[in-house]
Design a protein that fits this description.
single chain; 7-stranded mixed sheet; mainly beta
């Protein structure tokens, strides 16, 4: 037998067989790529082993070390993934209930998959010819049952019935971790379709899923993916078969589901419930109302189409011919009529293209009992993922697909932002961010494409400046966990800010240096500064400095401490009333402290020692019309005079307010141990 682990990269398929006069004595070894070193990330590798007809195979797992949460070794009783699953292995050898796996036929199919993060040692297995005859099996009957209950989760439960009920494992108790269960539903006649209804449905939102496929395998077009609460939902196949796949992660478990399926007639000229389409960019699917090419639609119809894509959904070349006022077609920005309405039309019209903001678009046709017409047609496709934006002097916004709902797997979106004036620059700020930390990425580039240098944030890990008229933003997600995504605002600016660099370890000092002192300009909008790696822990031996200057020379700098978590004994955040640390120190009182400079500049310094680290800090800054005159001796009483009349109350320090008009107030600001 050939060595199945040699020269296999991330994706491969290997096939070999046992033949000869004494096949019972043949033994072969399989192992993962690089074994006993770590197998690769993003692996998709298969092995097919077969013996002569009449023989069976035994697989013995000699060693197993696979990432428990996310990587799988799946063993099939046959020649492909469509055959029965014998075992799904993960974790380490000691976790296996049995190290020996026996086939019922002469084929053995093995599938290794891994995600994009951690890997282990992999596996080593031995294959032998195990018998002189096929294992005993029960012959299939040609008579289908009328109703059955199915609870097994061996990865391949085949159901041949007119109707039945499917339960998640352990129902009504919680299902287990790391489940991968598949049910194949096949009606006894091809003249009917499958109607699936969720009697009860509760999975961990966004992490555990029931995937519903429109056909006889998990490679059929996907109809829907359900997560969270879905009780009462129903879905219809377009053929006599439907496949369900249930997956769970390794943490939170809910009670699962109770699903009822039954046969249903679907005459071609009647809607027959919701129809499901999955489209791709560049491929156009023709959609029409029932009877469009013949006598037109009927009275009293309610038809709907759920269209999904791995991108946004786009409808083009829309032609509508409906009875005026009485009959109407609706387009919704999601997977049902409960989502925002994109448009509704009646009569004769030719609307502009319609594009969803997420990866679903729902179409609903309602006709009354009087008068009909030809109907409607359109072409559905996936929207190309590149968007061009123009930045003006007021903020614009864009977000991840489906925001604030979860973005979808295998997403790839780009935004090219151009300043309206050719001598201006681009400023972007991340307002909200929630991505899978290991595997989904948001990147910024200093130019019109991703071939330009990548931009690192100037402060807070959320504000980026270009050095030219263009900025390019790129978002990628992998095939596993999704989250809320992001929202970004952008604006053109007549200046670009000095860029910080990722902290690096100085070979001469042993300190993490944030780059040269960062200069930032405070205007009337909020700017932010944060410790390196915030909100994750900062580094040991950090030394970072910032100079904040008011945009106008006769204004001052105001800083608000939004978050602070430092090692109290040894790590320090210090503010100085000027452009360097040679100016007097300004003391502060912890989170929500308001800190003012007496002139145009404020200098900020952060240092950490060589031991404990914490979350760090986040500061918000802007320019202000307040003037601070003070002495810096404890207890640090500042006299604050407002130069301009303001139209609303402005909070100066906790419990102290400056009302409309010119005023003077006294603010006592004693130093706080560990925060100065």
């Amino acid at each position: 037998m050939q060595d199945a682990g040699v020269k296999i990269l991330h994706k491969a398929g290997i096939a070999f067989g046992f033949f000869g006069s004494t096949v019972e004595d043949l033994v072969g070894e399989l192992h993962s790529p690089n074994y006993p070193e770590a197998y690769p990330n993003s692996a998709d590798i298969t092995w097919l082993v077969w013996a002569p007809a009449g023989k069976t195979l035994q697989l013995t797992i000699d060693d197993l070390d696979i990432e428990a949460c996310c990587d799988r070794l799946t063993i099939y009783d046959g020649f492909s993934v469509h055959d029965k699953v014998l075992a799904i292995l993960t974790g380490v050898t000691n976790d296996l209930p049995s190290a020996n796996i026996l086939t019922s036929a002469n084929g053995l199919f093995i599938h290794l998959t891994s995600d994009c993060s951690e890997t282990g040692r992999g596996f080593k297995a031995t294959v032998t010819v195990a018998g002189n005859g096929l294992a005993t099996t029960t012959a299939a009957t040609s008579e289908a049952t009328t109703s059955s209950s199915y609870t097994a989760c061996n990865g391949g439960e085949h159901i041949y019935s007119w109707s039945g009920t499917i339960y998640s494992p352990n129902y009504p108790f919680s299902y287990d971790s790391n489940m991968n269960c598949v049910w194949f539903i096949q009606l006894p006649s091809d003249n009917y379709v499958v109607n699936l209804t969720a009697e009860y449905f509760h999975l961990e939102e966004g992490y555990d899923f029931l995937y519903i496929f429109n056909g006889s395998s998990i490679y059929s077009p996907i109809l829907a993916s359900w997560t969270g609460y879905q009780a009462g939902r129903s879905i219809l196949s377009s053929s006599s078969s439907m496949t369900l796949q249930f997956t769970s992660d390794h943490i939170v478990h809910k009670n699962g589901f109770v699903l009822n399926f039954a046969y249903q007639e679907q005459p071609l000229d009647i809607c027959g419930g919701t129809r499901y389409l999955h489209v791709q960019p560049g491929n156009y699917t023709f959609v029409s109302s029932p009877g469009y090419s013949s006598s037109g639609y009927r009275n009293g119809m309610q038809c709907s189409w759920q269209i999904s894509a791995n991108t946004r959904v786009k409808l083009t070349n829309i032609h509508i011919h409906l009875a005026y006022d009485n009959d109407r077609v609706y387009f919704y920005d999601g997977y049902s009529s409960g989502f925002p309405l994109l448009g509704s039309y009646s009569g004769n019209s030719h609307p502009a293209d319609i594009t969803s903001t997420g990866n679903y678009l729902f179409v609903k046709l309602i006709t009354d009992t009087s008068g009909t017409s030809q109907g409607f047609t359109f072409y559905a496709s996936g929207q190309e993922n590149s968007t061009s934006l123009t930045a003006y002097s007021s903020y614009g916004h864009f977000s991840s697909p489906n925001y604030p709902g979860n973005y979808f797997d295998n997403a790839y979106f780009t935004w090219q932002i151009m300043a309206f004036y050719n001598h201006f620059y681009i400023q972007t700020e991340i307002i909200d961010l929630d991505l899978e930390a290991c595997c989904d990425h948001l990147s910024f580039y200093d130019g019109s494409s991703n071939s330009y240098p990548q931009i690192h944030p100037s402060f807070v890990n959320n504000t980026y400046y270009s050095k030219s008229r263009y900025m390019f933003v790129e978002f990628r997600s992998d095939s596993s966990v999704t989250r809320r995504g992001f929202q970004i605002r952008y604006i053109q600016s007549d200046r670009h800010q000095p860029q910080t660099t990722v902290p690096y370890l100085s070979a001469t000092t042993g300190s993490y240096v944030c780059g040269s002192t960062v200069g930032v300009t405070a205007d009337w909008s909020n700017g932010y500064i944060s410790s390196p790696n915030y909100p994750n822990n900062y580094h040991n031996n950090a030394h970072c400095t910032w100079i904040i200057s008011a945009y106008y020379s006769f204004y001052n700098v105001k800083v608000i401490v939004k978050d602070s978590d430092l090692e109290s004994c040894c790590d320090f955040l210090t503010f100085y009333d000027g452009s360097s640390s040679s100016y007097p120190e300004i003391h502060w009182q912890g989170v929500n402290s308001y800190i003012y400079s007496s002139g145009r500049y404020m200098y900020v310094k952060f240092t950490s020692d060589s031991s404990v680290t914490r979350r760090g800090f986040q500061l918000r800054y802007m320019q202000t019309s307040f003037v601070v005159s003070s002495t810096y001796a404890s207890p640090h009483t500042f006299k604050i005079t407002m130069l301009e009349t303001v139209s609303e109350v402005t909070t100066v320090s906790e419990g102290v307010e400056v009302a409309e008009g010119t005023a003077e107030v006294e603010v006592s600001s004693p130093a706080v141990a560990g925060n100065s």
